[in-house]
């Protein structure tokens, strides 16, 4: 019996390492798919204003039908990216930044922004950023900046669309 303890312990260690490695790689792989889908229509470092989610059109997994989404697939290989969020007064809205590991590295909602537009610059360590800008440092070149806007009814999107399109994303 004792002769099997050593190999069994090694097998358990190898299995645990393989499981952890597979889990880590899966997060990068899933996020890369999401980044590519987000950039498919507009390219990188540009805001994509998604249509409202329906059962036939689900740009993300399990989207909320009462949220209007705008997303920017960012790529920092050529420099930092500036994201501007223009909250719609009286409506919940938020900006979240996700990195290549699916980690949320920044979140701000309309209440925290006091319902005023704000800008952030997403950058890697060592990338120069204009003075006076709020900087969100990330460890990876790619990710997604996601803006959510709460709607009372789907028909409101028509009247709120011009305000929603004041949010933007661009390379600086």
- In total, the number of strands is 9
The count of domains is 1
What's the N-to-C terminus distance? 65 Å
Note the beta-strand portion: 25-35%
- General shape: globular
Strand order of the largest sheet: 1-2-8-4-5
Radius of gyration: 20 Å
Low-confidence stretches at least 5 residues in length (pLDDT < 50)? none
Q: CATH homologous superfamily?
A: Domain of unknown function DUF1254
According to CATH, what is the class?
Mainly Beta
Tally of DSSP helical segments: 2
Main beta sheet, described? 5 strands, antiparallel
* Subunit arrangement of the protein: single chain
Overall pLDDT score: 88
Summarize the topology.
Layout: H1 2-42, E1 47-49, E2 67-75, E3 81-85, E4 93-98, E5 104-109, E6 118-124, E7 135-138, E8 142-150, H2 157-164, E9 168-171
Parallel strand pairs: 6-7
Antiparallel strand pairs: 1-2, 2-8, 3-6, 3-9, 4-5, 4-8
What features would you describe in this structure?
With 172 residues, this protein is an alpha+beta fold. The chain has a single domain (42-171), classed as Immunoglobulin-like. It has 2 helices and 9 strands, in the order αββββββββαβ. It has helices spanning 2-42, 157-164, and strands spanning 47-49, 67-75, 81-85, 93-98, 104-109, 118-124, 135-138, 142-150, 168-171. The strands form 2 sheets. Strands 1-2-8-4-5 form a 5-stranded antiparallel sheet, covered by helices on one side. The chain has a 4-stranded mixed sheet with strand order 7-6-3-9, with no helix packed on it. The protein is globular and about 75 Å long. It starts with a helix and ends with a strand.
